Amino acid sequence: MVDKNEIIKSNGFFNMDDSSSNPAAQQSAKAEGKIFFSNGAREILLKENTPKTDVVTAAKVAGIQAAKRASEVIPFHHANTLNWVELNFSAGEDHIKIESTVKAVSRSGLEMEALTAVSVAALTLLDICKEHDQQVNIQDLKLVPKVSKKKMLTVKTPIKVGIIVISDRITAGLADDEVGQLLQSGFANAGYHANNYSIISNDSDKLIEKVQEWLEQSIELIITAGGNGIGPRDITLTSLEPFFDFRMEGLEQTLHSIAQVNNNGFFVDRLAVGKIGKTIVICLPIDVALAQDALNVILPNMHQAFEF
């Protein structure tokens, strides 16, 4: 059960959830429902026990249009630009079943759009036959649970992670290492091997030496934090980028978009993700909020990069 305090904020009013820091991703949702009718509406809705083409067309157009405008009638729901809406109609003995599928690249879910598509399609059918069947009714409106695909071959041992914090101030004891500790605890709590943790000064030779050491130890994921500024002591990217076999543009662009939202683009050009041999290297600035958002992106998805 959802705690009402998670929905009703401290001011006593419902508020729209802030999804601005969520990375845009491929989203989908499915819903279904049934409209039941008696013999009085059968001839209007069905032809040879199949929904009539003109009836389906009217209901489908209505459902698609409604899904595209779901945020206009559902308070606090985010507006989503839909990429695809499909509705299918099938006849039972005393009902028509309506199924919807909705897809979009979005920061929020599409469940309300899928349910709205089915609801309005069903209402359209009801409107068509209501004068001939006063008993017509809509039932069983619900979301269709997502079925996860079983993965046959996956890595069975935890991924080994190395975290390097690059900062003259932290090594001199002038600042605390919040970002490195946040990353280490985040990976450890998610079941990664996160014992490899080091703080070094802004020294290119030390950074390359540490990365080389961990590559030889088969560390699969190396996260660096710091040294990403534009000053002469910011050596992370200039030191490591020449060793990348290739850039991982998808993950890099996702982290860029998060940085753009959280920091007005200040870090966007000083963030990199690449691969050296079998090891993924992610170079982040020292920023607590960005580190937390990076964890939110990396933790659920990183195992896919090491499947075989």
Descriptive notes:
The chain has 2 domains: 18-143, Molybdopterin cofactor biosynthesis C (MoaC) domain (Alpha-Beta Plaits), CATH 3.30.70.640; 160-306, 3-Layer(aba) Sandwich (Molybdenum Cofactor Biosythetic Enzyme, Chain A). Strands 8-7-9-12-11-10 form a 6-stranded mixed beta sheet, sandwiched between helices. The protein is elongated, with a radius of gyration of 26 Å. Helix 6 (178-189) packs parallel to helix 10 (288-301) and helix 9 packs antiparallel against helix 10 (288-301). Strand 11 (272-276) and strand 12 form a beta hairpin. It is of the alpha/beta class and 308 residues long. The chain has helices at residues 4-7, 39-45, 53-68, 111-129, 168-171, 178-189, 204-216, 236-240, 249-263, 288-301; strands at residues 25-36, 46-47, 50-51, 84-91, 95-106, 137-143, 160-166, 193-200, 221-225, 246-247, 272-276, 279-284. The protein starts with a helix and ends in a 7-residue tail after the last helix. It is built from 10 helices and 12 strands.
Keywords:
308 residues; alpha/beta; Alpha-Beta Plaits; Molybdenum Cofactor Biosythetic Enzyme, Chain A; six-stranded mixed beta sheet; four-stranded antiparallel beta sheet; 10 helices; 25% strand; disordered N terminus
Write the layout of secondary structure elements.
Blueprint: H1 4-7, E1 25-36, H2 39-45, E2 46-47, E3 50-51, H3 53-68, E4 84-91, E5 95-106, H4 111-129, E6 137-143, E7 160-166, H5 168-171, H6 178-189, E8 193-200, H7 204-216, E9 221-225, H8 236-240, E10 246-247, H9 249-263, E11 272-276, E12 279-284, H10 288-301
Parallel strand pairs: 7-8, 7-9, 9-12
Antiparallel strand pairs: 1-5, 1-6, 2-3, 4-5, 10-11, 11-12
Helix pairs in contact: 3-4, 6-10, 9-10
